[in-house]
Amino acid sequence: MYILKQRNKGFTMVEVVLVLGIISILLTFSLVNLGGYRKITSKIDSEILSNSILNFINNSKEYCRDNKIRGHIYFNSDNNSLNNSMTLNCSSEQINKLLFPEGFVLEKERMPEEILIDSRGITASSCTIKFSDREGKIHEISMCVGTEYVDIKN
């Protein structure tokens, strides 16, 4: 006859420590990778936005020159970063709009309210457009007076 031993139901301390150790290692790797992913996406989005602003300004100049009309580029900034954008208006009509990605904020200090473009596609004033990315890093785009020169500075 066999004697059946009654086994306690549950886990031993070694099993619990081993499982918690494995879970903590996996969680650490996933958090490190997630932080790196956020940093990379923020960097890529800031480069894309810099190039988009540059193209927006140049396309606005070209539009005014081709249609022989004056235009204004307005900066719409909001502290909660949901409504940050640039718009091209000609004769009180909105022609084009560039929306900023979520988490990107226009820096208002020393930035003009608008950029004037004459009918020849030339800007009357120089300015520096500043915006901060999701990581808080400031990016600058400088525009010279009367030329086609617009420069991205990091």
TrEMBL record:
Pfam families reported for this sequence: N_methyl
Q: Which organism is it from?
A: Clostridium tanneri
Q: Which domain of life is it from?
A: Bacteria
The membrane spanning regions, by residue number, are 12-32
Kindly state which keywords UniProt assigns to this record, in alphabetical order: Membrane, Transmembrane, Transmembrane helix
List the NCBIfam families hit by this protein, alphabetically. Answer: IV_pilin_GFxxxE (TIGR02532)
Q: Does the keyword Membrane apply?
A: yes
This protein's name: Type II secretion system protein
